[in-house]
């Protein structure tokens, strides 16, 4: 088979040169892979399946795979942290390519040996005739992998393999750029929250970069935390906090909320009005609070102490953005609703129950609520009405 001009030799229209130019017209990594595969096919390289596997720096994800299959487009999947290593490496040639930093090729016209990689058995069963995996070395010394497969009866030609090897060089550079951008986003999401992370990446990095938003403010902490702290070891306290944060944060995120920060045993979150994640921010905040209350009541964790919590919810305008010292900034929310939610949370009155709403939040919520009367809140000149579910 003759490889058309553009792959056999580098030309301005070749897949190789398109990648070297930064893949113009492709703004996201899946678009880069799709554009590359389309150009390979147009140049006469009979690829029918291309996968790019890149490990990533993320607190919960081991790595990411982009898979293009002819007629099916590009699919993206992630391997959660803790996925058994054999599921990621040993079932495919990935580990061999990473360790050797050399190409791996396997003809598949006949069924692979019984001890062959399961991936090769799978590809043969789907009609693929040839598989080529190439290293994608990054400048930080780590190595990742791109795999090509074809269904042509004769497999890849010598010219095609040479062309694919040349393509892998600029593909590694682009893959590293997108991986670094993704790592930056992952870290910001994990440490400052999705909304704040987007603001930072968009350029809101200066002290005083602020915006006023309307939101439900959610402030939560563990009831009787001081007593639990006094009776537990540091390791037990960390496990207890992680157990609590896992529960409350999953309920907040599941309802479209944004976790901004942890303060000791407390969680500060917001449910902004300008989002399509929910119809009513106060209803979403209340649903998250009730879900956490129910989950904690049902949790039994190998003899760990039972956890109870308190939640304060207010609604109104807050200032959202960068505050702090020149050398150390914090992306946070400031305003009376934040203070009020914290004071509602801090009231140690068991008869109020776990979830308390201000009059402002209650007025916005559509759920049935009961006015429990007026209470003095530290820092506020007038007693405040407190509403509870039911």
CATH homology-level superfamily of the largest domain: Nucleotide cyclase, GGDEF domain
Average pLDDT, all residues: 86
- CATH-defined fold name of the largest domain: Alpha-Beta Plaits
**Which structural class should the secondary elements be placed in?**
alpha+beta
CATH top-level class of the largest domain: Alpha Beta
Can you tell me the residue ranges where pLDDT is under 50 for at least 5 consecutive residues?
Answer: 5-12
* Share of residues in strands: 25-35%
Sketch the major β-sheet: 8 strands, mixed
Distance between the termini: 75 Å
Give the second-level CATH assignment, the architecture of the largest domain: 2-Layer Sandwich
Number of helix segments?
A: 12
Using DSSP, what is the number of strands?
A: 14
Q: What is the N-to-C order of secondary-structure elements (H for helix, E for strand)? A: HHEEEHHEHEEHHEHHEEHEEHEHEE
Please tell me what the overall shape is.
Answer: elongated
Which radius of gyration do the C-alpha atoms yield? 27 Å
Taken together, the total number of domains comes to: 2
Helical content stands at: 25-40%
What would you note in describing this structure?
There is one protein chain. The chain is of the alpha+beta class and 390 residues long. The chain has two domains: 15-191, Beta-Lactamase, CATH 3.30.450.40; 194-389, Alpha-Beta Plaits (2-Layer Sandwich). The chain is built from twelve helices and 14 strands. Strands 7, 8, 9, 10, 11, 12, 13 and 14 form an eight-stranded mixed β-sheet that branches. A hairpin with an 8-residue loop joins strand 13 and strand 14 (384-389). The longest helix is centred in the middle third of the chain and has 35 residues, at 158-192. It is elongated. The N and C termini lie far apart (75 Å). Mean pLDDT is 86; it is low at 5-12.
């Amino acid at each position: 088979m003759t490889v058309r001009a553009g792959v056999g030799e580098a030309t301005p229209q070749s897949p190789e040169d398109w990648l070297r130019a930064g893949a113009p017209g492709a703004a996201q990594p899946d678009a880069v892979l799709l554009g590359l595969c389309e150009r390979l096919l147009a140049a006469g390289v009979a690829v029918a399946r291309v996968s790019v596997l890149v490990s990533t720096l993320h607190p919960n994800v081991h790595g990411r795979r982009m898979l293009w299959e002819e007629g099916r487009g590009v699919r993206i999947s992630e391997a959660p942290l803790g996925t058994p290593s054999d599921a990621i490496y040993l079932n495919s040639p990935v580990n061999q390519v990473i360790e050797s930093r050399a190409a791996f090729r396997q003809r598949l016209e006949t069924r692979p040996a019984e001890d062959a990689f399961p991936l090769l058995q799978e590809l043969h069963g789907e009609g693929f005739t040839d598989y080529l995996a190439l290293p994608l070395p990054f400048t930080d010394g780590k190595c990742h992998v791109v795999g090509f497969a074809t269904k042509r009866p004769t497999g890849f030609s010598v010219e095609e393999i040479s062309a694919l090897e040349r393509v892998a060089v600029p593909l590694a550079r682009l893959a590293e750029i997108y991986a670094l951008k993704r790592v930056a986003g992952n870290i910001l999401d994990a440490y400052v929250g999705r909304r704040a992370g987007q603001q930072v990446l968009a350029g809101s990095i200066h002290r005083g970069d602020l915006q006023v938003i309307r939101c439900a403010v959610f402030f939560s902490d563990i009831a009787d935390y001081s007593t639990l702290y006094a009776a537990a070891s540091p390791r037990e306290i960390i496990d207890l906090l992680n157990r609590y944060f896992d529960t409350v944060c999953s309920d907040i995120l599941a309802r479209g909320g944004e976790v901004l920060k942890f303060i000791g045993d407390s969680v500060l979150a917001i449910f902004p009005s300008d989002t399509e994640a929910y119809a009513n921010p106060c209803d979403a905040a209340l649903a998250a609070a009730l879900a956490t209350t129910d989950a904690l009541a049902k949790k039994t964790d190998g003899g760990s102490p039972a956890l109870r919590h308190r939640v304060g919810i207010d609604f109104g305008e807050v200032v959202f953005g960068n505050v702090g010292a020149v050398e150390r900034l914090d992306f946070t929310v400031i305003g009376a609703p934040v203070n009020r939610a914290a004071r509602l949370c801090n009231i140690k009155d068991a008869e109020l129950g776990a979830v308390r709403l201000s009059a402002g939040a209650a007025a916005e919520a559509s759920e049935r609520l009961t006015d429990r009367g007026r209470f003095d809140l530290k820092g506020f000149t007038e007693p405040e009405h407190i509403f509870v579910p039911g």
